[in-house]
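Below: protein 1.
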Amino acid sequence: MPAWHDRRGAGVVHPARRAGEGTVTARSGRRPRGPLAGLLAALVLAGGCVAGGVSEGEPQQPRPGQPQPSASPGAEGTRADGTTSVAEFKEDFAVAVEKAEVYWTAQFRASGRQFQPIRRVVAYQREGEVSCGGQALPRNNAVYCSADDFIAYDVNWSVAAFRQVGDAFLYYLLGHEYAHGVQVRLGIRYTFTIQQELQADCMAGAYIGGSIQTQQLALADGDLDEFREGLLAVGDDPDQPWFAEGAHGTAEQRTDSFFRGYESGLSACNLG
């Protein structure tokens, strides 16, 4: 792992049946590309830190030719592997948080530093139910709040994504938000949002790939396709200026950043 310095500007994922390991299990059946694109095109995951102290995503209009997202997924929009229950969602999300803490603790230790896990992860259901630095968090979102050091997510939206996209999406979602917390711990801030976001995508990929290498997680058939589908769906409109406030990167940029981290680890993420 490089020395850090301050700088400006899948089926179902279950805890492993062996102690200490999480597993991304195989899935079968045709993926519901229409509902997937509609659901994810309604949002952009995790934006850059703003003055209010929150790293968040903002709703985005579906691109031309994409279906409108449904409020809740029906049978036609659910993965064929049967990833549907709230209990499974809670279990998978808890594992994703645990494995992120294990991964980042090891990375910090390797650099001679002590890692302080993100203080808490909060689920909410209504707009304004949770606030960050006095700023109410919107629905259909997942955020990292630097002001109070927590991750918050709309549980209804997240469960819908879990059902339509699959469980691997949760590991990317949590990994991206956790990466924002790590950026704060390292004092990393960029001039443009897109720089912060693409780095967080890379760091999320490094977390997942590194956890697989250490057998904290196991990759199953179809999981890489699930990551690609999700990343392709959450990219910015190609016509949006890269320097725009809140820009996250095109689908191609986000996919490239994630898989660079996944394949090469944190050395690919420009941490220093």
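Below: protein 2.
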Amino acid sequence: MRIEELKNNRVNDFIKYCKKHRAELDDSFLYEEDLQSFEPTEENPTYIVMNEQDGIVGAVSLIMDEYHRSGNKARFRIFHTEIESFEVYTLLMKAIMLHTKELEKVFLFVPFENRKLSEVMEGLKFNIERYTFVLVREDREVPKFHLPNGYEIKKLQPGNEETWCAVRNPSFAKLKGSETPITPGMVKKMMSDDDHIEGGAMILYHGDKAVGVIRGTVDEYENAPIMNIGPIAIIPEYQGQGLGRVLLRASLHFAKEKNYKRTILCVNADNNHAKALYVQEGFEQVEAVTCYKYDIHSTNVEI
């Protein structure tokens, strides 16, 4: 057995390994559309575990894009080995941490069902940062929505990137996991990503003032297409007026127009108000995951 940094000649084998094991893991970045353009770069440091036959039996990969680095953090794309050995996980952790010296934290999402991986995380001195629920809405009728007088929903257009940020950032400033502000450049890139749906990103205006945003993107769940809804954001001074429900229904109607039979979204476990809204609108919880956090400079663990 040996651990080595992933090179371009083994990328296809790495992708096959990710697909093979994604059902055991948080699969947010392990689907075809997420992996088809994957390259082992500074933004995607990746290591693999090789057996004596030169086959991949383990892998670790971090997402260190502009958004995550601006918050001094990184997120694991995958952290897994077929060898049931804490030592192998420790060696993978030691290798990947060489790329995190300028960061403060790294995050890993683990499904509740994967107790073995949770035990590994706890052994490596990861701490529970939060819990997240995944909710799915099956194909069913979408209730009508009515905009209050003076309100209008418009499609996000090139040139409106700053407006999007001006709504999204204060809305999420206290939301665990999403508190890092985004930039107009990130929004511009978002609009050119493969998962972007033309017209799926919407801005809610009250007169000339932007007060809410919502976005629907291409996703996959249970090997079938699905539209992912998020972010759903209302600026603080306009919250509690039912505008989030209006935006959600507008996005659900958009999904119908685009022939998506199901929609999916995520919500933090401590956001009871938001979860209650989604359940009222026909979503059902299908998964629960634990977000583990590793504090790079304060965690006292030998790796």
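The CA atoms of residues 167 and 235 lie 6 Å apart.
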